[in-house]
User: What shape does this take?
Amino acid sequence: MLVDLLGGFIQELRAAGIPVSMVETIDAMEALRHTDISDRQAFKSTLGATLVKNARHHAAFEMAFDVYFALERPAPESRSADDPSEPYDLDGLLAELEEALADLDMARIRALARNAVEALAGMESGRPVGGTYYLYRTLRQLDVDGLLERLMGRASAAGSVSMLEERLTREELEGRIRILRDEIETEIRSRLVADRGREAVAKTLRRPLIEETDLMHATRSDLEALDELIKPLTRKMATRLARRRRNKRGRLDFRKTMRRSLSTGGVPVEPQFKSVHPSRPEVFLLCDTSGSMATFARFTLQFTYAMASQFSKLRSFAFIDALDEVTAFFEPGVDFAAALRRIATEASVVYLDGHSDYGRSLEQFWTAYGGFLTPRSIVIVTGDARTNYRDPRPEVLREIAEAARAVYWLNPEPYAYWDTGDSVIGRYRPHCTEVREVRNLRQLEDFIESVVVPTHGAKVRALS
Assistant: This one.
């Protein structure tokens, strides 16, 4: 029974996008031989340590574990939603919850969470409603915000406290409210599993991993979560570029080689090379901020914001049918939200109708800033290359590519959509060092992992 359950659990992890190999599965089974599986927390920790390799995947692991190893609970009753519920002492429940949270009595919190779900969630057998709906109904009736304020009142009644102590107390109590929320959510999942089965509930609750979220359709909360993951990627990109510069040797120094060969009878055993004085690359980022690119543009600007701390010479440009430099908006210490507001209100990115015009924007960049491009310059363009049937002027991008070390184009559209309709990415590709489909964070990470900064004058490549 346990082996079958573990098999289904591992299949669910794979379906959720967590890479679990056969070797890791064997490791998990071996580790469980030395684990007291009656200890739920130890059992969970063992599976997490052997099956999950990335901290970003822990949320999906937790979700799958709560479903496949849900505590046994009775299935919801089959009743009509219009049936009047039995009277319940809500005030008494709230008073008990307040006491349990104040004392951080986990056993009582779990018991009261079960009571709250039983009385307030209104769960019905066979009803096609997700757990989020039941969670909302329960928390709304518990008035968790009011519960938090009452707990704060109890804490402040003990005597006067400083602002710092008050803030620390609030953070501590907010953590206890989250514990209550988690216990209620776990209870709801257990009852859903009892009613519908593990596979059905797991499929309903499954969500894409944050690194696989489609950037064109990401929500604000998705972008906020991505913000925490972008900074390490920019550090990795800066490190890779620096490593390539360090590894590059200079030209053969003939005189030093011949002098060194005198000690070996004129045989140049140890060739000598001229010293290389590497310089940090200059990065120019051009970002399409038009309406169709709005969500992706916000992600790109997050990337820009993080890159600003890694590259001493990073210049950022926003464009729609006109282009404007926004480098100053991302100076160190500037709040990201404030930078976004400044771009929306101060940047001159609209010339006529506010529809993308890549040709005009590229020409404007080349005319105004082309003189700053050097063999150290890296140009990154982000956008779908949809020109609204306007002249794309690919020859301008060719001139930019000839002046710079490399040109990378990151396209958020699926590859199958390229060169359809008003997309002209195919006309830009010959002038790019590399063209990448970047629809999610995983693809951006792949791009950074494989980024190659060619020497100036090297033949450009166009890759999908």
